[in-house]
Design brief:
single chain; mainly alpha; TIM Barrel; 3-stranded parallel sheet
Length: about 375
């Protein structure tokens, strides 16, 4: 369409989608009468499924462009889920309905204060709004424009790294051992596909995440301190929701970042034959996953019992299983690795469709 090969008839609404990080991909071409298809979460193994990720400032900036251009004919928000993203779902729907963010007249971040006041009371709102601003700035970032590490990235990449190492372990000269085979010449050293000839990919990825997650960890630790401090200001009746929507959310990101950092350090140590160090780092990664699962359990109060049993997309439990297998493998490369029964990104949709059965929503 942008190159002129496809013409959209004037009676058809042009709807521009975003990239999963809240950046709408019209490249400045948006025009009056058009619309947008916007995500606050997306299943792409890199963005968010269990926690908020898209900053209010970005939502206001991108949707503001569309309001200014008169591109308000159509709006669709893809929530991917609902419970984990109450703040950003509320923000995009407020903007779509009102054409601005109420309470954010001075700065978009003022919306954090408005939302926190409604959900947690006026006394707690300033501290929680301050925490939210730091929360959205805490993740490691890649690319231009800047793209956050979402909760999916930590777990998808961590599993890929461990699986690749276990597949490619014969390439490494571990203490008392020597490689028994080499990568076929047809593939070549540095082929770099996870799980097949990925030695160079693994080394590069581990080094990058040691840097990226290492830098981000201090930011996440600071966000956690602010979130815990603000809890005392929240009315007792709202503390279960605060646990679920703030403390659990922060823990998922803080400890998942820590987990990927320790996995990367473990991989790097194992590649260089430092197996005792690799085993200790794997144990630290397992401890971080345990913190995530403990926080998730704390958010499963009342009607939300077993809520995180339905996490088949980020896959925290799958990460724990992979880590346990990886830790055993480091201790004994001859250990039996459990075969996967059914594990892919589509496992989630299998479960969802089984749960839905023949039920459908009456939208009329």
């Amino acid at each position: 369409m942008q190159q002129g090969y496809l013409k959209i008839p004037p009676e058809v609404i042009t709807v521009w989608a975003d990239d999963g990080y809240g950046y709408i991909e019209d490249k400045g071409q948006v025009a009056a009468g058009q619309g947008t298809y916007y995500h606050v979460a997306m299943m792409n193994n890199r963005t968010n499924q269990l926690s908020e990720m898209v900053p209010i400032e970005r939502i206001a900036g991108e949707m503001g462009r569309y309001v200014k251009a008169g591109a308000t004919q159509y709006f669709l928000v893809n929530t991917s889920d609902i419970r984990p993203y109450s703040l950003t779902i509320r923000a995009v729907m407020d903007y779509a309905w009102l054409g601005h963010l109420p309470g954010a007249e001075d700065a978009p971040s003022g919306y954090y204060t408005r939302y926190a006041t409604e959900e947690f009371g006026a006394q707690a709102a300033p501290a929680i709004a301050d925490m939210y601003k730091d929360y959205f700035a805490a993740p490691a970032h890649v690319g231009d424009p800047s793209h956050e590490y979402g909760d999916q990235l930590y777990h998808t990449e961590g599993r890929q790294m461990m699986q690749t190492f276990m597949v490619d372990a014969p390439l490494y000269a571990l203490p008392g051992q020597s490689p028994k085979w080499t990568i076929p010449r047809l593939v070549g050293e540095g082929y770099g596909r996870p799980g097949f000839g990925g030695k160079q990919w693994l080394s590069t990825t581990a080094a990058r995440e040691i840097q990226q997650c290492g830098d981000a960890q201090a930011r996440w630790d600071a966000v956690w301190k602010k979130a815990v401090a603000a809890q005392a200001l929240v009315p007792a009746a709202r503390r279960p929701f605060y646990q679920a929507s703030v403390l659990t959310m922060v823990t998922i990101n803080r400890e998942s970042n820590r987990m990927l950092l320790h996995i990367s350090r473990s991989i790097q140590a194992a590649q260089n034959g430092r197996l005792a160090e690799a085993q200790q780092e794997a144990a630290e990664a397992l401890a971080a996953v345990a913190q995530v699962r403990q926080a998730q359990a704390a958010a499963e109060y009342g009607k939300w019992k077993n809520w995180y049993r339905g996490d088949w997309l980020t896959g925290v439990y799958r990460t724990q299983q992979t880590l346990e297998a990886y830790a055993s493998f480091l201790k004994d490369p001859l250990t039996h690795l459990d075969p996967p029964i059914l594990w892919s990104g589509w496992e989630a949709y299998y479960h969802i469709m089984m749960y839905e059965g023949d039920r459908s929503a009456d939208v009329r």
